[in-house]
């Protein structure tokens, strides 16, 4: 799995920062950050099991689409709220 910018099939953008392991199960987990502000705050951090992140939707399309390396791939995309690095 590539680190970088991903677009969710519903349209929001996320910065995948890396893969971690669950401390109890050792299952691989994706650590990613929203490039928006919502009820959970500015640039909320999320985790999702890697298998869920990579699994396609029922129609076979991808749930998250890799756009490119971060932050370079954000150029030209409007309405993103980028976190301070």
Brief overview, please?
The chain has 85 residues and is mainly beta. The protein is built from one helix and seven strands.
Describe the model:
This protein has 85 residues and is mostly beta strands. The chain contains one helix and seven strands. It has one helix at residues 50-54; strands spanning 4-8, 13-21, 28-34, 37-38, 41-42, 45-49, 64-68. Strands 6-3-2-1-7 form a five-stranded antiparallel beta sheet. Strand 2 (13-21) and strand 3 (28-34) form a beta hairpin. The longest helix has 5 residues, at 50-54. The chain is globular.
* Annotation, overall tally of beta strands: 7
Q: Overall mean pLDDT score?
A: 96
Question: What is the architecture at the second tier of CATH?
Answer: Roll
Largest sheet: 5 strands, antiparallel
Radius of gyration: 13 Å
According to CATH, the homologous superfamily is DUF1653-like domain
CA-CA gap between termini: 22 Å
Describe the strand arrangement of the main beta sheet, using strand numbers. 6-3-2-1-7
Number of domains: 1
- SS strand fraction: 35-45%
Question: Regarding CATH, which class?
Answer: Mainly Beta
Low-confidence regions = none
Q: Name the shape in a single word.
A: globular
Give the count of helical stretches.
Answer: 1
- The percent range for helix content is under 10%
State the order of secondary-structure elements, H for helix, E for strand: EEEEEEHE
Could you please say which CATH topology applies here?
SH3 type barrels
Helix/strand/pairing category: mainly beta
Write the layout of secondary structure elements.
Elements: E1 4-8, E2 13-21, E3 28-34, E4 37-38, E5 41-42, E6 45-49, H1 50-54, E7 64-68
Antiparallel strand pairs: 1-2, 1-7, 2-3, 3-6, 4-5
